[in-house]
Amino acid sequence: MNDSGQSDRLDEKQRRNRRDRLERVRRWAEYVRDEPPEDWGPQQNAVVDAQLESAREADLSADHLERIRGFGEEAPEPDTTRDASRESDDTTSPAEGT
Amino acid sequence: MSGVTLRDGVLEVDREPNELDELAADFSELLSAHDVAHVFVAGYVAILTGRARSTEDIDVIVERLSAARTDDLVSALDAADYWGPAMPLEEMYGNLSAGTNIWVAPDGQTTPHLEVSFPTDRYDSASLENALAAQIGGHELPIGPLELQIAYKLYLGTRTDFEDAAHLYVLFRESLSEPALERWVEDLDVEGAYERLRSV
User: Fold this and answer.
1) B31 and B120 fall within a common domain
2) Domain span at residue B23?
3) B87 and B26 fall within a common domain
4) Touching check for B199 and chain A: CB below 8 Å?
5) Which candidate from A33, A88, A93 shows the least CB-CB separation from B2?
C-alpha cells in the first residue's frame, strides 16, 4: 500500500463523513420545521443540557478552556470557497439522525 | 406543525427553555433593565432555533459603553451574583475597549458562560442595529438578523459553522430575505459556500 493510495482512501472517507453529517443536519432541520415542538424540543434540550453537564463534570478551568481555544485559533485560516465542513470539532449530537 | 416561526420580525420558539436559554434570558433581562443595547449572535442563534448541539459560550454583543456605564453594569452584575470566570469583572471596560471579549457567568460557574464584546466591525454593528426579537418560554431576547448569521457562518467556514448555516437555511428558507442574504454573501465574499448551501 503506497502513501498516495492511503491518502486517497482517507480523503474519500472524510468526504463521505462530511456528506453524511450534512445530510443529518438537513433531516433534523426539516424535522424541527415540520413537526411539533413536543416531539423535537425535549430531544434537543436533552442534548444541550447533557453536554453542558458533561462539560461541568470535567471541571476544566477557564484558563484551560482559553488555551484550547487559543490553539484552535492558531489553525490555518479556512478557505471559504471550498468545502467548509472540514474541521473536526464534533459538538453535534447523534440525535440529528432522528 | 413547526415550533419555530419567523413572522414580522419576531422569531417564536415554542419549546421549553434549556439551560442556555435560561442563562441568555437572565442576562438579557439584566442588560435591558440597565438600558444596554445588546444582541445574541453566532452558535447560540442556531441552538435557540433547534440545532441539536450545545456550546460552552453564548456570544453577546453589547453597545459600546463609556467607562462609567460599564462600571455601573459591573456593579449590577455583582449584585446579581455573576462573576468573571476568566478575569475579574472589574477589568471589563479595559478589556472590552481593547477588543478583548470578557466571560460572564453565574457565580462559581465556568460552563456555560456569556462571552461579551463591544462591536468591533460593521457586521457586529449591523447585528446590533437590525436585531430580531426572539421569544421563548415567556422571555424575549434580541438575536442577530438571520441572513447575516448565515452568511457570517459561511465566512467562518469550520464544519460546525457550515452546519449551523445549513440548519438555519433549511429551517427558514421560505421566510428569509433572499436579497439581504445575497448582499451579505457578496459582502463577505462567500459565493462558493453559498452555492453549496443552496444545494443542501
Assistant:
1) yes
2) 4-144
3) yes
4) no
5) A33
Neighbours of B164 (CB within 10 A): 28
Residues B18 and B33 in one domain: yes
> Do residue A37 and residue B156 have CB atoms under 8 angstroms apart?
no
Contact A44 B52 (CB under 8 A): yes
Count the domains in chain B. Answer: 2
pLDDT at A91 over 70: no
φ/ψ (deg, to 5) at A90: -120, 85
Name the residue with higher pLDDT: A4 or B196.
B196
Does residue B21 or residue A19 have the better pLDDT? B21
| Residue B41 exposure: Cα atoms within 13 Å on the Cβ side | 28
Question: Considering only CB atoms, which chain A residues are within 8 Å of B188?
Answer: 80
Strands, sheet with B102-106, edge to edge from the N-terminal-most edge strand? B4-7, B10-13, B132-136, B139-143, B38-41, B57-62, B113-117, B102-106, B82-83
Judgement on whether residues B80 and B157 belong to the same structural domain of the protein: no
